[in-house]
Amino acid sequence: MANINENIKFFAKLDDLASGKKLEEFVQRQAEECWEQIVTTSPPQVQTGQYIASIQVRDVQRSGNEIFAEVFTDLRLDWHNVFLAELLEHGTGIYREDGTGRQTPWVYFNKNWQRFVYTHGIKPMPHWTPAFQMQSVKMKEGLRHVFN
Description:
The chain is an alpha+beta fold. The chain has one domain. It is about 50% helix and about 20% strand. The protein is built from 5 helices and 4 strands, in the order H-H-H-E-E-H-E-E-H. It has helices at about 1-20, 20-40, 50-55, 85-90, 130-145, and strands spanning about 55-65, 65-75, 105-110, 115-120. Strands 1-2 form a two-stranded antiparallel sheet. Strands 3-4 form a two-stranded antiparallel ribbon. Strand 3 (about 105-110) and strand 4 (about 115-120) form a beta hairpin. Helix 2 (about 20-40) packs antiparallel against helix 5. The chain starts with a helix and ends with a helix.
């Protein structure tokens, strides 16, 4: 009988949490903490300016049984319309984590420096993945705390 009462309490907590603002506030707070982690651990070369300003948190949304908030950047490079975050996170050229980068060096013209640059690529500078992984652990712990 005690098991049935515990289950009823658990589902009552779940219903209260899912239907109220508590869960939305919790998810929003987690997204904002993830954003902060991404911004503070981004590579020093891009910690000012457009890149940091482009990292945003979209407010909590509900879709059916799902509730979510997004942390994203919309900053793309002129080169192949690729997200800068993708290149920073996973590297380019011979340094690309998954091995799909260009394997031969190349030259490009850098408008800011007003000169040609010879490169093999850039090494990965992960800051999105570690932030997401850390926040996932914190979220699970937070939810576990709610249900205990």
